Amino acid sequence: MPAPAAVLQAIQARFDTTIGELIELARIPGVSAAGFDPTEVERSAAATAQLLADAGLHHVETLRLDGAHPYVVADWLDAGPKAPTALIYAHHDVQPPGRLDHWDTPAFEPTVRADGRLYGRGVVDDKAGILLHTAAIRGWLDCTGSLPINVKLIVEGEEEIGSEHLAEFLRAHRERFDADVLVLSDTANLETGLPSLTTSLRGLVTIDVTVRALDHPVHSGMWGGPVPDAATALARLLARLVDASGEIAVPGLLDDVPDLTPEQRAAIDGLPFDEANFRRDAGLRPNAPFAGDPRYSVYERIWRRPALAITAIEGMPLATAANQLIAVARARVGVRLAPGQAADRVAKAVVDFLHSDPPYGVEVSLETSSAVPGWQTQPMGPAFDAARRALAAGFGRDPVTIGCGGSIPFVGPFSQVLGGIPALLLGLEDPPCNAHGENESLELEDFRKAAIAAAHLLAELG
Asked: Read out DSSP for 322-387?
């Protein structure tokens, strides 16, 4: 059953106000990462709580755990004990702004540009995820005085730093968050305007590598030749991790990658793919080929195959470099895991490989900072059927089922803590949104459609 026309009209009539609320929320630089002002995350939580209260939700609270950024929770339970309950998740914290001089407009001064997109840090990841649901809930309550189902909301304050305390938070408030279906508004659409249900996530292993060649830097002219340096040794060590095509070369790492079923591969192969658009959105240089094993499609390589990247490297900044042999160099290795791979096994394979036969006999020390498995679900059953109908009604086209190359470590534990309830992963990121990068943006027409779809979802889940 779709949402009533009056509810949809109310959302449409108030949509400019909803955009304004999103802009005001995104002005708050609520960066959860270390080194940034934590009072701004507190301010973001307070503003989020006010939005939820203004939408008509009940029992709005800001909850805290020791050492954690604040969570905002709310509910509306007047549909009664026989109605289903949806637990809606979003997060109000944001990534650091990055290189300020690479923003065309200031990161925390959200700006609507002529292309119909809103630019600013956090506008799509994930403050729009909060506002689309408050817009839908307000539309229902203003027009009918009720919702067709019970709803509970968790808006987290530390998703961008790994949701370290979320499991503890859920355990501490377990009974409060009992639900029949989980709705997470922090994923992507395959294309702008194409609604998508995400049914798999890759895992993540992160390993910090430190190479020590000397106990202090020395003059490169006086000592270079017989004396090795840490930067060159690190470069040689890291180069062993992949082959010439970019495919992972760590022995045994690919052994437990699950094979796709013919149905899964056919579903991926049936999705639209525009190579020119993909290359443009990724920022690939004109002559750069795709990396990885060409036997697998681009989507399969992103969603269902592991990938390895050097996400940080340091030795001596160019601005302060001297003619010295570098004593110590460091790097961070990130491995995205195929859903179904064992994270601890992959981490051990990489660590063992980097420890073996170090170049020039340098000392290599390694620290595994994360080892999180992927997640996948079968999109079957009434909750998924309801989501498909709602997305189709909101966007005016049938949704597709996709995977995600990124990691949301808490999705699996979240669902399991709540008894294995179905998890609907919906979101607003699209290929040009540049989430986590400079000039992050939100397609406002998709924002409007998603708010309409959220109103339909409440009805369909009922």
From this structure: -SEE-SEEEEEEEEEEPTT--HHHHHHHHHHHHHSS-GGG-EEEEEEEEEE--EE----SHHHHHH
| 9-53 confidence digits (pLDDT tens) | 999 999 999 999 999 999 999 999 999 999 999 999 999 999 999
Give dist(CA 184, CA 238) in Å, integer: 36
Cα separation, 351 vs 15, whole angstroms? 51
Which residues span the domain enclosing 261?
206-281+298-372
**Beta strands at 181-188 and 85-91: parallel, antiparallel or unpaired:** parallel
Q: Which of 157, 137, 154 is nearest to 36 (CA)?
A: 157
Pairing of strands 423-429, 181-188: parallel
Interstrand relation of 218-219 and 423-429 (parallel, antiparallel or unpaired): unpaired
Looking at the structure, do residues 273 and 411 belong to the same domain, yes or no?
Answer: no
The closest alpha carbon to 307, from 250, 372, 240, belongs to 250
Task: Identify the helix (H) or strand (E) that includes residue 173.
Answer: none
Amino acid at 18: T
- Give the tens place of pLDDT for each residue, 108-152: 999 999 999 999 999 999 999 999 999 999 999 999 999 999 999
Separation between Cα atoms, residue 92 and residue 126, nearest integer Å: 6
Q: How far apart are CA 44 and CA 21, in angstroms?
A: 12
Claim to verify: residue 236 and residue 358 sit in the same structural domain: yes
Distance of CA 73 to CAs 314, 356, 436, Å? 41, 49, 25
336-347 residue pLDDT tens: 999 999 999 999
* Burial state string for 130-168 with b = 16 or more CB within 10 A and e = fewer than 16: bbbbbbbbbbbbbbeeebbbbbbbbbbbbbbbbbebbee
**Would you say residue 286 lies in a domain?**
no
Neighbours of 269 (CB within 10 A): 11
Asked if the bond preceding 126 is cis, omega within 30° of 0, the reply is: yes
Identify the domain boundary among 325, 353, 372. 372
pLDDT at residue 34 in the model: 94
* Residue 267 tokens, joined: 């579903």
Cα-Cα-Cα-Cα torsion 279, 280, 282, 284, nearest 10 degrees, comes to 60
Please tell me the distance from the alpha carbon of residue 63 to that of residue 51, in angstroms, as a whole number.
Answer: 16
Taking CA 195 as the corner, what is the angle to CA 191 and CA 200, rounded to the nearest 5 degrees? Answer: 85
